Task: structure prediction
Amino acid sequence: MVATERVIKVYPLLRIDVAKLRHNAQTLVDLAKSFSISIWGVTKVLGGAPPVGAAMLAGGVTALADSRLTNLRRLASSFPDTPKVLLRLPSPRQAEAVVHIAACSLNSEWTTLQALSQAAVAAQRQHRVLLMVDVGDLREGLWPDQVIPFVKRAIGLPGLQIAGLGTNLTCYGGVIPSPKNLGILVDLARELERQGLVQCEIVSGGNSSSLQLLQEGKIPRGINNLRLGESLILGRETVSRHPIAGLHTDAVVLQAEVVEVKQKPSVPVGHIGQDAFGNKPVFVDRGLQRRAIVAIGKQDVDPGGLAPLDPGITVLGASSDHLLLDVGAYPGKVKVGQVFSFGLNYAALLAASTSAYVHKVYKNYEE
Ligand SMILES: *Cc1c(COP(=O)(O)O)cnc(C)c1O
Result:
């Protein structure tokens, strides 16, 4: 469902402005470069779409990274020579596909490394491995005291090259990157080198949540890579979700059509049981309301993550296929067939970009 701008007019529609994405990528790449840090462009929230990969590469990212092999395959057909990185830990079963599709993968399990090693040898390839270290967020990674013994074993595996260490923060535990927790990663990398075990070419200090530290100049020396998705695409850092100065926050916009406009009470009439999703809704009486229904719902998007871009509009709620709006403060008349635009948070974007019902249009994209 990739279309160019001329063929649109099918809603709901995710408009992805690749010129804005390129600008965001370039701005972050330049900022990171001043600290000798390279950026991998993370495409997963947009499903590894090639126009998105192209924009990130034009902005100067050194690799494209995604959590899904399916997405990396999509990218591989457009960018065969660009290094591609698998972000989610592979399973041993995926080893063969991983060594064919990805130049590098993130890992923390011995069984998986053995499988990758065998697959790499069989394919006569070198596969690069970034070992993940858990410095506190409790998602993936070796506990710091396990890293050195693990590396001692892993360096013997043929077909694999330990490219360095990485960590991931602010994903499960919400732990904020700090000089202290990122310092653990750098210290481990230096210790591996001091013991002559591996030369850590990559020391990857996290995702978009590390940007604030970078902007404040507090990223520990020795971190030389970041993996950026949300900040690059939505223009926000991800500790407090503040817009990043100089970045576009509207590179991706969701558009949908109005299918009903009516004056109705703000409180339902009758005894209130459960809504379509088994919740008991609560209402505040605001008298009569000018309400509109937009043809988009939970099958397309996470409605709570939508921010109306048109003035005077409030989201009241949603069912699977209907988004309810209070349009009382909208300047002018709202008409059936009118198109409203919404900004999206990460959850809403993830759902919209994954929904088969949402069309995708790439603005400023030249094939
Ligand atoms: C998703 C992901 C990223 C990118 O995270 P953002 O918050 O979108 O920048 C980086 N690293 C890993 C391992 C990921 O899974």
Q: What stands out?
A: The chain has two domains: 35-234, 252-363. The mean pLDDT is 95.
